[in-house]
Design goal:
- The complex is a heterodimer.
- By secondary structure, chain A is mainly α.
- Chain A is 74% helix and 0% strand.
- Chain A is globular.
- In chain A, 16% of the residues are buried.
- Chain B is 66% helix and 1% strand.
- In chain B, strands 1-2 form a two-stranded antiparallel sheet.
- In chain B, a hairpin with a 3-residue loop joins strand 1 and strand 2.
- The chains are: A mainly alpha, B mainly alpha.
- Chains A and B meet through helix 2 and helix 3 of A and helix 5 and helix 6 of B.
């Protein structure tokens, strides 16, 4: 096993373990922290794929900016710990219908994962060989503002709409 | 196993490990020196002598402080979250150390002919160094927020929340000023940015970016002080309102780790400022082989400015801090960025 493969398993393991902890933790603050750990694992995978820019941006935007706001909100709301006793009866996810739908979705996800795994030929090299755009910041910027111009602009409009919507919702109603 | 031993004993590894050791030890020593310098500068500004008892001119005061902190009792509030309470100072101090990794502090050197090939005075030369520093700095806020939350105390929580609000606000301006320099130099590697600042205009004025981008430097300095939670932006630990802010409940070495993180962050921000705006290790009179001396001189000056500001300016009010960040610093940085972009595009600056 090469050092790249070893590192892949470490980072992938961290990402999966973090994601599992997000849903299994009872304390929401721990869930937020587990999600950050998961993002770090993903960022490590990006480095292995020879895309350092994407890796760093992953940390700045997701682990840095967005998760700080998550943590902020969770702390301010002071969400209580999820209680095991309530889970037994009252929780909506316990209803038979919810269990059936959830089960069906889980089977579908497993099938898709199996299909995707059957099509990959194992661990490949860095994406930089096929897509040099990912590894160089200048090239990434050029591609973003030429080939993917439309998608880029539409995304930014979407974000502005979301921001305006949030401001409208948060504004006090004058009557 | 044999491979690993061969790798560990290879000259490259030894050189690399010693660089890591120098940076690690240097940062630790700089924290101790800063504690002493802070007390002495404060004393001189208030016409006192400062620490004088331990060693000549109180020079051994940091040693005494560290020993005292080691032997103090580790206290933890009963209702505190034990795991996060321990984790928070570790996050703080670890991010402070990691942030220095991509910072170069001298031209490649052969150590006075000791080595065959010149080695870089830098832990790792990442080609997105500017972004890495920014990313790691934005991680530091978790240490403070979690400390505030895990202590389960009102003062700590308020300190932690204030800190996160402040850091989020000032990170934007910080990033904008970094982007301006990146755009102007056309590189994200600190080493390349430093080398672009070589030479002089008219043979006198050094080609440092501070003279071309004074606004970016001003924004960077303000945001840097706010990021490191120093006066006049030291709200997270405003003594008069919040006791000691996020580290109210901390004692002994856990407290010392927050303290160390604060000083190391100051060193890192200053080192980045030296590289981005003050020409790094380039300067007159000293031969390039000893460029790191210039780096240390500039670094020491910026660190002195930190202390100077702290003991000169009173603290802002919290709402003033927020409106300054959002309504002054961010617009100024944005306009400066756009002007620089226009300059680079149309005049090829």
């Amino acid at each position: 096993m090469g050092s790249d493969a070893l590192l892949f398993y470490i980072f992938a393991g961290a990402a999966v373990l973090g994601a599992l902890l997000v849903v299994t933790q009872k304390n929401p603050v721990y869930s937020v922290l587990a999600l950050i750990a998961s993002f770090f694992g993903l960022s490590g995978l990006y480095v292995l794929l020879e895309a350092p820019f994407v890796a760093v941006v992953q940390i700045i935007i997701y682990a840095g900016a967005i998760m700080v706001l998550f943590l902020f909100t969770v702390m301010l709301l002071n969400v209580p710990r999820e209680d095991a006793a309530e889970w037994d009866r009252a929780h909506p996810l316990y209803r038979p219908m919810a269990v059936r739908i959830g089960g069906a979705l889980a089977i579908l996800l497993a099938l898709e994962l199996g299909w995707a795994l059957s099509r990959t030929a194992g661990l490949g090299g860095g994406v930089a060989d096929e897509h040099p755009a990912v590894s160089s910041v200048a090239e990434l910027g050029r591609v973003l503002f030429t080939d993917y111009m439309f998608a880029f602009e539409v995304t930014s409009i979407l974000i502005i709409v979301a921001m305006v919507g949030a401001v409208v919702l948060a504004k006090k109603r004058e009557e | 196993m044999a491979e690993i031993i061969a790798w560990v004993t290879s000259p490259e590894f030894i050189v690399y490990a010693s660089i890591v050791g120098v940076v690690f030890g240097g940062l630790q020593i700089s924290a101790a020196v800063m504690v002493y310098a802070e007390r002495k500068v404060a004393a001189f500004m208030q016409q006192r002598l400062g620490p004088m008892r331990v060693g000549p001119y109180g020079l051994l005061q940091p040693v005494a402080d560290i020993l005292k902190l080691f032997f103090k009792e580790e206290l933890r509030p009963k209702a505190a979250d034990a795991f996060l309470f321990t984790l928070a100072p570790i996050i703080s101090v670890a991010t402070a150390y990691v942030a220095f990794a991509p910072v170069p502090f001298g031209a490649p050197t052969t150590l006075f002919g000791l080595l065959d090939e010149p080695m870089a005075l830098q832990v790792s030369d990442v080609n997105v160094a500017v972004l890495v520093i920014f990313a790691v700095a934005s991680m530091g806020v978790y240490g403070i927020v979690l400390a505030g939350w895990a202590s389960n105390s009102k003062y700590s929580l308020l300190g932690g929340l204030r800190s996160s609000a402040q850091m989020i606000s000032y990170e934007l301006a910080y990033g904008m000023s970094l982007a301006t320099v990146v755009m102007f130099s056309g590189s994200m590697s600190l080493r390349e940015i430093v080398d672009l600042q070589q030479g002089y205009w008219f043979g006198v004025i050094p080609k440092w970016y501070i003279f071309i981008q004074p606004i970016a430097f001003f924004v960077f300095a303000c945001a840097g002080i706010a990021e490191t939670n120093r006066a006049p932006f030291d709200f997270p630990e405003a003594e008069q309102e919040l006791v000691a802010g996020y580290h109210t409940e901390y004692s002994s070495m856990r407290f010392a780790m927050f303290f160390m993180a604060e000083y190391i962050n100051m060193v890192t921000v200053s080192a980045v400022a030296v590289n981005l705006f003050l020409g790094g290790w380039h300067g007159p009179f000293i031969p390039p082989e000893y460029g790191w001396l210039w780096f240390l001189i500039k670094l020491a000056f910026l660190l002195f400015c930190y202390l100077w500001l702290r003991w000169t300016l009173p603290r802002f009010r919290y709402d003033q801090l927020m409106s300054f960040g959002w309504k002054v610093l961010l617009p100024v940085a944005t306009v400066n960025l756009l002007l620089t972009a226009a300059g680079v595009l149309y005049f090829g600056l």
